[in-house]
Amino acid sequence: MRSGGLLTSVHAFAVDPERGLYILFLLALSIGGSLALYAWRAPMMEAGGVFKPISREAGLLVNNLILGTATGTVLFGTLYPLFLEAVTGGEKISVGAPFFNATFVPMMLPLVLLMGGVAHSSAGSARIWPVFFNESDLSRWHQSS
To answer: Are residues 78 and 10 in contact, defined by beta-carbon separation less than 8 angstroms?
Structure first.
């Protein structure tokens, strides 16, 4: 942490408006593109059935739960000093590397261990190409090449 405080160091990119606009553009592009892709393909999606407990889909679900929990931990560790300062009327504490090492590392170990297994598990019905292309587009592309 810098002497200017937590918010100054975390938001140091805001000193240069060009960097802020660049980050905002990247966020808008990625989020807008994702939502546009979903809106375009949503009517063609079918309701999926129940997946097996040991499958790629289950692994992705566990992955999302672990990453969501890790994100919440980082958010808590970042906002807790600010919340405590507001509640106690100015008492400052620092949440540093010991907190994050004690909480984040144990959460990431199962993720690292499961990563290889999920990548090599059977995909079941989950295929990525139909999200971007129709089956007829893929067959025409294979015929022309």
So the answer is: yes
* pLDDT surpasses 80 at 145: no
Residue labelled with tokens 């139909």: 130
**How many CB atoms are closer than 10 A to CB 61?**
12
d(CA 101, CA 120): 29
Higher pLDDT pick, 17 / 46: 46
The CA distances from residue 43 to 39, 97, 131, in Å, are 8, 46, 12
Q: Which of 139, 128, 143 is nearest to 37 (CA)?
A: 128
Q: Is the pLDDT of residue 136 over 50?
A: yes
Locate the domains of the chain by residue range: 1-45, 50-128
The rounded distance, in Å, linking the Cα atoms of 65 and 71 is: 10
